[in-house]
Amino acid sequence: xxxxxxxxxxxxxxxxxxxxxxxxxxxxxxxxxxxxxxxxxxxxxxxxxxxxxxxxxxxxxxxxxxxxxxxxxxxxxxxxxxxxxxxxxxxxxxxxxxxxxxxxxxxxxxxxxxxxxxxxxxxxxxxxxxxxxxxxxxxxxxxxxxxxxxxxxxxxxxxxxxxxxxxxxxxxxxxxxxxxxxxxxxxxxxxxxxxxxxxxxxxxxxxxxxxxxxxxxxxxxxxxxxxxxxxxxxxxxxxxxxxxxxxxxxxxxxxxxxxxxxxxxxxxxxxxxxxxxxxxxxxxxxxxxxxxxxxxxxxxxxxxxxxxxxxxxxxxxxxxxxxxxxxxxxxxxxxxxxxxxxx
Amino acid sequence: xxxxxxxxxxxxxxxxxxxxxxxxxxxxxxxxxxxxxxxxxxxxxxxxxxxxxxxxxxxxxxxxxxxxxxxxxxxxxxxxxxxxxxxxxxxxxxxxxxxxxxxxxxxxxxxxxxxxxxxxxxxxxxxxxxxxxxxxxxxxxxxxxxxxxxxxxxxxxxxxxxxxxxxxxxxxxxxxxxxxxxxxxxxxxxxxxxxxxxxxxxxxxxxxxxxxxxxxxxxxxxxxxxxxxxxxxxxxxxxxxxxxxxxxxxxxxxxxxxxxxxxxxxxxxxxxxxxxxxxxxxxxxxxxxxxxxxxxxxxxxxxxxxxxxxxxxxxxxxxxxxxxxxxxxxxxxxxxxxxxxxx
DNA sequence: CTGTTAGCGCCTTCAT
DNA sequence: ATGAAGGCGCTAACAG
Lengths: 343, 343
Fold this sequence. Notes:
2 copies of one chain form a homodimer.
Chain A: H1 4-11, H2 15-23, H3 31-44, H4 50-57, E1 62-67, H5 73-88, E2 92-97, H6 101-113, E3 118-122, H7 127-132, E4 139-142, E5 155-159, H8 161-174, E6 180-184, H9 190-205, E7 215-217, H10 222-233, H11 238-243, E8 249-252, H12 255-267, E9 277-282, E10 295-298, H13 301-317, E11 325-328, E12 331-333
Parallel strand pairs in A: 1-2, 1-3, 3-4, 4-5, 5-11, 6-7, 6-8, 8-9, 9-10
Antiparallel strand pairs in A: 10-12
Helix pairs in contact in A: 1-2, 1-3, 2-3, 5-13, 8-9, 10-12
Chain A binds a DNA duplex (16 and 16 nucleotides) through α2 and α4.
């Protein structure tokens, strides 16, 4: 592959002049020399080696993204928004899938070794260990960030999970539901805990049951949602024996799980919404095409993604900027998965 | 950040010895020196700078992936499989989303500039221009590859789109359908054309209509599928005026489009499968949770992804290996979107 | 067994 | 307006 020296030789100038032309500085170049250089660049189809440039200049124009999965439509839509914003600013996205925590740590290391300019962490389980590290590039987390000592060291973008979850539960209560189960998320990250907290808070607010027998943790997948449903609504569910009645509604922490919840309800012979009402969280496109369409709390996914990217790029430019926390809120999208409980 | 020189200084050895220890060669190192080096590495939390290593060694251990979208579940599942395989082999994935062809070209350039070890192209629209380039890293395409002169220069992985599409159409015919519409894909890539060809071939095989009035091209999105449905089944559809009857079934080129097809049918007051039967292509998880569940040709997405990654890694290791074309076939997954036409 | 050294390709200061 | 040269951090060939 042609190098800068080749171009310089053909143009009859020194390598420095080639850089001057291509980078628009820092020194002026005569029109003649410029023309010869550009011709040589054309002839060789020359492009600067980004590796060498990065080694020299200290910037890779690459951003790392650590994401739990791309199969979950919420994460997929988020990744799409982030990539779009980065593309616009001339940055490349390096992606690691962080199914499990060990993998997340390995990927984090790898990204730092590769000197990415910044990192976006989605639902990170190893943020604590990150913050302990000496030297990391700027980081933005898509999820709430809570530091032990209250001081924030990274920026974050997220919805108000507690309030938005409470709102979803309130919607169910408004239709007359009291015994409402909660399909919780799998990971020890704030977003998962907060959605349970929002459910519990809202149940407590009207004196409705909020015990652990009504909570089932599950993976953020359809299968996870199905399992949780069997645990909560199946014949020998603890929720049923404790309350001597089957929950009439479920608050589900993600659309991905809700797909499996619908499936499991069908298997159990329960009709949605006649026998069981469902409200889920995320508001992805996929929620519109289920049977029945899901009533779901729609997160502003595009905004979350573009904001995360923009915050990060700002931090890359000005490393000693104050970390920010940007909070959005969700909107209830009415599907057809909620009805009044059978009386 | 600590450099190799720092570690060497602390360990009281030369920088080369640090490399010998960390890289396991190429020269032996005494146990004592090794211990001191490792202690120093530990103390500094030192890791080699991957940028410098790449500049020197010629390998970035990074693979580029160009993908049309992550929101389409077929592409998302494919990306997931590819990332998994690359992670296993210690490679990082750099992703570019190639919504439009211009973007694809920019990304391709960028990946080459960054000296990725190889590139995976999904449904590429600019392969022709790639093949014209002088120096590219190894490339694997997920789609069929057709060179003008018949000689293949890159490897490919794909299903037999013509045969698998024909099979899907045959399934509809088996239920008694004759007037079958085709929702085609949007891009000038082999996979899109071949699915239409499979539909047409199978229609011709039984002397059923296969004219262009029965084909509607559309984006690989739900909205695309909906628009195509209006064009084919709406009140003033050309298909209807030509045949003086409404198509009783649709062959849909992707699950993503099929979601929108279902939606549009509901809007048009057409029941699925009573009024319109549907078979789609891809067989993603998402097809199981629609209303009704989709009957769809399931591509072996995991295998496609891991095979693409493995072929590429082979080519990276042995650049003058013969390009291969690996062909898989799809399986019909029975949902509930097909029934006999109303007589 | 260990140390020295020459680049990899680029950017940029300094000298001309 | 241009050229020469140092150095980013690393690997590996070469010399002790």
